[in-house]
Amino acid sequence: MAGRLKMNQIAAATGYSISTVSRVLNGKSYTSDHAREAIVKCARQLGVLDELTTGRLYVKSIAVFAPQRTFNARGDVFYLEVTKGIAEATAAQNVYLSYYGLEEQRPDLKLFLEKAGDKEIDAIIIIGTDDTTIFKLAATLNKPCVLINSVDREMALDCVSPDHRAIGFSAARYLFERGYRQILSVTCLRRETLQMRLEGIKEAYRYFHQTFDPQRDLAITETFSPQEAESVISTWLDTHPRESWPEAILCGSVEMAGGVMRALEKHDLRMPEQVSLMLTDFAWHLEKRMGRPLTGIAVPCRELGIEAVHLLQNRLNRPQAAVFNLLLQGKVAEYDTVLSATRYAARAEQVMPSDD
Predict the structure, then answer these.
(1) Fewer CB atoms inside 10 A, N or C side of the chain?
(2) How high is the pLDDT of residue 183?
(3) Is residue 29 pLDDT above 60, yes or no?
């Protein structure tokens, strides 16, 4: 009955019929822009939007910006899953999605302003961009905007990201708890989010009272390509004495893991009998892409897109609400590329010198 009274109030205040008010509040698209704007404005003033579930989006079009490789046939599978999450969350809402390439560094500012500032665009989602100028421009467009897997130091835009620091910590802790001490992390550090993940790994070293030595425990690549990962790991193994070779490798991506495995094979190292391999992240929906599933931290990348849409919904309904920084947690996915504690202990006993 209360809901009916509110619809009567909105209809009386705006001059539109109750059926039109009902269509707008239920997210239907077959109403005029003028009617929709008037009804949503009145509903917001009456506090009706605060009472609605997060299932409704009061926009007709969203511009989605992501690195261009996201849209290539063999591009970034992580970000592709994010876009699938956005599409999934808006599928039943009659929302039109348009996609544009926007690089992580030195993005095309003119393109962004042209597309994001278009009067037909009601909201913006920006995926994986580091350029602070883009963030500042987005904040001036007077449109709800959500960042995915980015860091806005000005705290002006809502953000949703994996908890990179916690992911790095969890991955390293998983190995430490199984008795590993000689661990080599191989990763690209071109983005701040990746540096945060490395900080989580270092935190695990401190937690287990171990010293992190970058010369011994870290191999850095410029990109995530398997070829570069293979080269970096091969060089590392060739330049370090065998007794200091890692017992386990923490790998920064699924793509890099292919190169790491080739480097281990070239050096006659069996996985996991001689070297265990663990990923610091991979997509929940793509865990078997390597042909062989790898133990790692599964990141809810599709859920990043879904939660971004919910943040847009919240910003539309509550424009004065505090800015959100939502962190999604990963989850350990266990396969057969890291030895169990029992098997590791047995292996350690075989290589330890006897007391005789």
Answers:
(1) C
(2) 97
(3) no
Domain containing 157 equals 61-162+301-328
The CATH code of the domain that includes 90 is 3.40.50.2300
Q: Is residue 46 part of a domain?
A: yes
Tally of CA atoms within 13 A in the half-sphere of 276 that contains its CB: 29
What is the end-to-end Cα distance of the chain in Å, rounded? 86
pLDDT (tens digit per residue) in 169-197: 999 999 999 999 999 999 999 888 999 99
146 and 170 share a domain? Answer: no
Element (H, E) at 188: strand 183-188
Q: At what angle do helices 192-207 and 164-177 cross, to 10 degrees?
A: 40
pLDDT tens, position by position, 241-251? 999 999 999 99
Closest CA relative to residue 82, chosen from 336, 355, 333, 303: 303
Assign 3-class secondary structure to 69-128: HHHCCCCCHHHHHHHHHHHHHHCCCCCEEEEEECCCCCCCHHHHHHHHCCCCCCEEEEEC
The position carrying tokens 């961009």 is 129
Check whether residue 134 and residue 191 sit in a common domain.
no
User: What mean pLDDT is predicted for residues 60-73?
Assistant: 90
The answer to the question of residue 356 being in a domain is no
Q: Are residues 173 and 145 in the same domain?
A: no
Does residue 192 sit in helix, strand or coil? helix
Beta-ladder partners of 337? none
- Banded model confidence at residue 284, pLDDT cuts 50, 70, 90: low
**Residue tagged 């098997």 (tokens):** 343
Whether residue 124 contacts residue 116, with contact meaning beta carbons closer than 8 Å, is answered with yes
CA gap 319, 324 in Å, rounded: 12
Residues 69 and 162: their CA atoms lie apart, in Å, by 20
Total domains in the chain come to 3
CA 343, 332, 247, 178 dihedral sign is negative
What rounded mean pLDDT belongs to the chain? Answer: 86
